[in-house]
Amino acid sequence: MDVTFQFDWAAAFSSIPHLLPGIPWTLLISFGGLAIGFVIGIIFGLMRISPLFWLRLPAIFYIEVFRGTPILVQVLFIFYGLPQILGEPINALTAGIAAIAVNSGAYISEVVRGGVQSIERGQREASLSLGLSRTQAFRYVIWPQALRRMIPPLGNQAIISIKDTSLFSVIGVGELVRQGQIYIATTFTAMEVYLMVALLYLAITWTLSILLRQLERRGLVGQ
Q: What biological process terms from GO does the record include (predicted)?
């Protein structure tokens, strides 16, 4: 049977207005989850480098569990599993943000650990010799330098989290892929629509990459 496929550019471009409503949901889930994940990452990252074993152990457990399991499984557990434990339903948006938060938090924890440990020990010792307490040395000397070094990997994590939101169509979140699926169901133009979905994701992540490069050129990140 001779089947000839012709790409329909008109159908592709006509799908864009139907896909655009998914962008705010994609950004809300990704950056909302990342904001919470950053807080989680700081807490567990500092616990990870604590000299106290009873603080390090739960941090190691959390990091290994959420880095070692797929985010799709995590969001399905949050959306379908947690309501059975809590006895209350969890809406799709909350589940998506929570999944990004706990997943990115595990990776950010390692970014925080690496950033803090990358600062030379001599700077801490010099701060203490100048009369600063350990807390003051960390707050005013170690952390500002570590944060600058963390920005590039944090930017990479943001890009990964934006792309991860595409998996949340399985729970009905109205992000880009879900909007595309809804449109395809009535037009049967899967190739054209998914190409536009990919290009919209590329536009978002490329914009973020350009912003990060501008920060690097201005010397606001890195060494």
A: amino acid transport
Q: How many helices (H) and strands (E) does the chain have?
A: 12, 0
What is the residue-level pLDDT of the chain in tens, covering all 223 positions?
Answer: 555 678 888 888 999 999 999 999 999 999 999 999 999 999 999 999 998 999 999 999 999 999 999 999 999 999 999 999 988 999 999 999 999 999 999 999 999 999 999 888 888 788 878 788 888 888 888 888 898 889 889 999 999 999 999 999 999 888 899 999 999 999 888 999 999 999 999 999 999 999 888 877 776 655 5
Residue 45, in any domain of the structure: yes
DSSP 8-state assignment for residue 120: -
| Domain count across the chain | 1
Burial code (b: 16+ CB inside 10 Å, e: under 16) for 138-164 equals beebbbebbebbbbbbbbebbbbbbeb
Find the distance separating the first CA and the last CA of the chain, reported in whole Å.
62
Can you tell me the distance from the alpha carbon of 177 to that of 167, in angstroms, rounded to the nearest whole number?
A: 8
Here the tokens at position 31 are 């950056």
Query: Does some domain include residue 152?
Result: yes
Residue 4 within a domain: no
Farthest-apart Cα atoms in the chain, separation: 83
Q: Is residue 7 part of a domain?
A: no
Tell me the two tokens of residue 85: 């434990």
